[in-house]
């Protein structure tokens, strides 16, 4: 399942959404109040569904789609006049007021869509990536999310797939 990230300037809205998701069996990865915290959360995750509530200064859902593409799905929940500013057809929109059941149904649909779009690693590829992360964690004394992010960044910087770069790390050894 994709990581659920709740983004919104209002703490009340984030808390309400978090409770709704938790009561329905969804696990919330992170709640973000600012553009910088949202981008940090996205940099730590391969795949995410963002529940974007209202407006966050300096970060629109359209910008997120441009920056992160198929790695994310966005559910934007806002008043009609706010939603009208959206240009991206990839963003799923719900107009406030809306029911919890409508939100949960939209999230279930986005989760299924996201699963179909994300490339899946084979068992051997997963093991290779995990082994490379373990090596990085030991060598650099970093956490698993930090190792994952570093592996991802280095692979992108070298124009390689993550599994390819993980193979290099494993061959090089601890």
How would you characterize this protein structure?
The protein has 174 residues and is an alpha/beta fold. It folds into 2 domains: 3-117, Response regulator (Rossmann fold, 3-Layer(aba) Sandwich), CATH 3.40.50; 123-172, Winged helix-like DNA-binding domain superfamily/Winged helix DNA-binding domain (Arc Repressor Mutant, subunit A), CATH 1.10.10.10. Helices cover 55% and strands 16% of the residues. The chain has 8 helices and 5 strands, in the order βαβαβαβαβαααα. It has helices spanning 11-23, 35-43, 61-68, 80-83, 100-117, 123-140, 144-157, 162-172, and strands spanning 3-8, 28-32, 48-53, 72-78, 92-95. Strand 3 (48-53), helix 3 (61-68) and strand 4 (72-78) form a beta-alpha-beta unit. The longest helix is centred in the middle third of the chain and has 18 residues, at 100-117. The radius of gyration is 18 Å and the shape is elongated. The model has no long low-confidence stretch (mean pLDDT 89).
Question: Any key phrases for this structure?
Answer:
Arc Repressor Mutant, subunit A, Rossmann fold, 16% strand, 8 helices, alpha/beta, 5 strands, 174 residues
Largest sheet: spatial strand order: 2-1-3-4-5
CATH evolutionary superfamily of the largest domain: Response regulator
Average pLDDT, all residues? 89
CA radius of gyration is 18 Å
* Share of β-strand residues: 15-25%
Question: Based on the structure given, which CATH architecture of the largest domain is correct?
Answer: 3-Layer(aba) Sandwich
Per-chain topology:
Elements lengths: L2 E6 L2 H13 L4 E5 L2 H9 L4 E6 L7 H8 L3 E7 L1 H4 L8 E4 L4 H18 L5 H18 L3 H14 L4 H11 L2
Parallel strand pairs: 1-2, 1-3, 3-4, 4-5
Helix pairs in contact: 6-7, 6-8, 7-8
